[in-house]
Specification:
With 300 residues, this protein is of the alpha+beta class. Helix content is 34%, strand content 15%. The chain folds into two domains: 105 residues, Ubiquitin-like (UB roll) (Roll), CATH 3.10.20; 153 residues, Fumarate Reductase Iron-sulfur Protein, Chain B, domain 2, CATH 1.10.1060.10. A five-stranded mixed beta sheet has the order 2-1-5-3-4. Strands 6-7 form a two-stranded antiparallel sheet. The protein binds iron/sulfur cluster (SF4) (2 copies) and FE2/S2 (inorganic) cluster (FES).
Length: 300
Amino acid sequence: MTRTNGPPAPPSPAAADAEDQSLRIAYDDGVTDRTATLRVWRGDAAGGAFVDYEVPVQEGMVVLDAVHWIQAHRAADLACRWNCKAGKCGSCSAEVNGRPALLCTTRVDAVTRPQDRVVVVQPMQTFPIIRDLVTDVSWNYEVNRRIQPFTPAPGERAPFVIAEPDITRVEEYRRCIECFLCQDVCHVLREHRGQDRFFGPRQLVRIASLELHPKDTADRLAQLRAEAGVGLCNITKCCTEVCPEHIRITDNAIIPLKERLADREFDPIRSLWRRLRPVPMASSIPAADERVAAPARPPG
Ligand code: SF4
Ligand code: SF4
Ligand code: FES
């Protein structure tokens, strides 16, 4: 009998199965005759070990695809953080063959070792492990909160009128996707565990984006020297090499900040001026608890 009203009839088992199949990701599309062994670190804060998974290689496959294949076919409990699969959210940061990388933009073919067709995938080593490939990066957000945000002059309102070269310069810093690969590779944080005395390259990029903004009026140089520890950076440029947004972290953010600080502290004319003027210039650097409260963010 044909139903003419009421709730729709449930699909037959065969139709439901066909629909289920159509919703599945077609992992077999573009499969080649090649395989690769993904050597993935499995474990948590208590410890772990590398586990090998043989994965069929597809044309254009990225490491995140291979991780998804493992989750779908071999180990559904493999933990991996990701979101956009387009190199834009900064979530899938890990290490591939010991090098910090985004899993979603790293081609399997490009990183497969030719001698044994192995790709080693492990979590970022600078941050505490949560599970498998997932690390706890919350320290970066805590440090970020200690930086005074954008602070225009009182009464200054958006839209701001800014010369193009000035805004182009700070635009580079705004490309940061907070993947923290630069923090992961920096030896001050990674080898020397300097989290208590160094903010790391990502946060120096953020300070540069504010300090070099033509409409910002706050002074973060005292914080930069003391709390942020900019002097600990010895310009190795490792952070620049791993940045997926190609931000020239050392040349365009850290070195200008160091130069500003040197100008402030060691320039002989400024030094003479500090000695001659009645009010010491150091008083113009507000202490952390005296800084101007940031106004509400301008629209846009
Ligand atoms: S250049 Fe400085 S911030 Fe970048 S990795 Fe080297 S020491 Fe760290
Ligand atoms: S500066 Fe580059 S490497 Fe560092 S967090 Fe931003 S996008 Fe990632
Ligand atoms: S998943 Fe968003 S950057 Fe990789």
